[in-house]
Amino acid sequence: MEAPSPSPARCVHCGGLVPQLYRRYSATVLKMVSCARCGQVADKYIEYDPVLVLLDLVLLNRQAIRHILYNTAFRSHWKLYVVMVLIEGYVTYSATAAAPAAAEPWQSADAERELPPLDAPQLHGERLFYVICIESLLASLAFFAASALGCRVLGVAVPTLRLVKALVLGSFAVFLWVPALIWRQQGDPARRWVDAAFINGYTFLGLLQTVSVLCAAPRARAAVVAALGLGAKAAARSLLRAVDGEDPA
Ligand SMILES: [Zn+2]
């Protein structure tokens, strides 16, 4: 997706270290280097269009994940992270804001239509959105911490920056919430459950593959780490929501 980093790279097939991905013979002639460990071209993606790399990433291709993680600088990870936090915050906010419409059956219609007091704070919805975004940020930190702990349990000490990049990359399915929110049929809770099940399942698979690549671990163990991270995020978000919900303000 970006220019290959100058540091020692990795073979996208076996993960072995290679001193360089290509040799330059002239200004216009390059030759890709083969991996000494597996004998295959170390990184075919350096000649690919970024769109094709992205397509392979969407297909959860391990080679594409390894290429982005190890053979590119991937400096845009923090931008993706910020957008993901905002998306997850908005998803939670929209569910919270829609909650009164789906009031419990024993609540009266009058209670649902109760007007806010005259001294209610202005821009309450905006304040709630920012609070939920902060909760989403804290939940993502719990996600990073739990995933780091899981990798450590697997016996792999991953540098923090690489771990963050990997977890952001593995969570790319969060972006599917954008079309899901746009196309969602209003007042159809079943559709929301289907969207959530699909996107969360896809996110889990993406994290499973990424952790498996990052820690060179079997998929079964990587699945435990992915479940631990996502579970910690969900628990932190629920806890924070419950604490904020008890706030009388
Ligand atoms: Zn190799």
Automatic annotation (TrEMBL):
Q: Which UniProt keywords apply?
A: Endoplasmic reticulum, Lipid metabolism, Lipid transport, Membrane, Transmembrane, Transmembrane helix, Transport
Superkingdom per UniProt: Eukaryota
Q: Name one GO cellular component term.
A: cortical endoplasmic reticulum
Q: Transmembrane region positions? A: 128-150, 162-183
Checking Pfam families in the record gives:
Arv1
For biological process, the GO terms are: intracellular sterol transport; regulation of plasma membrane sterol distribution; sphingolipid metabolic process; sterol metabolic process
Topology class, membrane: Multi-pass membrane protein
What does it do? Mediator of sterol homeostasis involved in sterol uptake, trafficking and distribution into membranes.
Q: What is this protein called?
A: Protein ARV
> What gene does the UniProt entry assign to this protein?
LOC113208817
